[in-house]
Amino acid sequence: MPTASGKRATLAMVADAAGVSLATVSKVLNGRSDVAADTRVRVENVLREFGYVPQNGRRTVASRRLADIVFDDLVSPYALEVLRGVTDAGTELGVDVVIGRMPEAGAEPSGPLSPEDAWAQRIKSGDREGLIVVTSELTLAQVESFARAGLPLVVIDPLNLPRVEVTSVGATNFSGGITATEHLLGLGHRRVAFAGGPVGASCSQARLHGYRAALENAGATADPALVLHGGFGYQDGLEMGNRLLARENRPTAIFAASDATALGVLEAARRRGLRVPEDLSVVGFDDTMLARLATPALTVIRQPLHDMGRVALRTLLKLIAGETLDSHHVELATHLVVRDSTGPVPDHSRQGA
Fold this sequence. Notes:
The chain is an alpha/beta fold. The protein has helices at about 10-20, 20-30, 35-50, 75-95, 115-125, 140-150, 175-185, 200-215, 235-245, 260-270, 290-295, 305-320; strands spanning about 65-70, 95-100, 130-135, 155, 165-170, 190-195, 225-230, 255, 280-285, 300, 330, 335. GO terms for molecular function: DNA-binding transcription factor activity; transcription cis-regulatory region binding.
């Protein structure tokens, strides 16, 4: 907007209104990356409010910034919740988010660059300032290629961390595993099974460790035959559910490592004529829309997927600006949401602790 005197706004006026230096305003106008995200947004808002036009009449507020978000699976409700968090933060912070897929493993070089370096250079040449990788398995070669290209990296719920210094955002998976299992133990269940994700996935391993810790703390026997690993999908849950429920001494409760896995377990129970929760209790992990739409509605450990996405983008912008992070690994709190898929252990299955 024009100033009160009708004079054209100057850089000094913008700097004073935004509470920053002239140099910072200049950096924002030139699209420099070494400005904190919150400061950049504040300066851009003042520039727009004042209707600032540089004296050459050509340069205006720098075009919106770009960041990549890369998924292994784009169709899951989990991915959609994380993406919503990242894009909401992008809208607030003036960052456009470009969605991509993980490249195929084992790709052959198509030129002088390795597949890893070629991927990093494609991202860099598209003016992306950094990238977020969601629930995917990264290789050390990929991480090193991003570093060579000068691309800051943040991973969400990583399946692995090739380097301990790779910045990650996740949830309190160990605590969530304890809480889920303690909920089932509190309902009288002692034969509690775990339908986990990939055996090498760090988030699934943390949930498994929490499950085992809760059983041990309660003095309940941890039966190795009741621990299975698969993927995080519906079909994986169906297969693991079939195997667990086909046992002669089947579990009375199953803790599934994702909502989609839990839905597969529900279907396995339905096919055997088992009622949930009267004959079998089931707990999921995530609290996506699948949990609320399931029949019966799923009791879950809720991880704040939307907030994880928001924190990941804000963290990425701090890395881009060269800021020092308080911690390279951030875990957001999980909590239990009780719905209709859990209930007391069936009378005929009651056992001593």
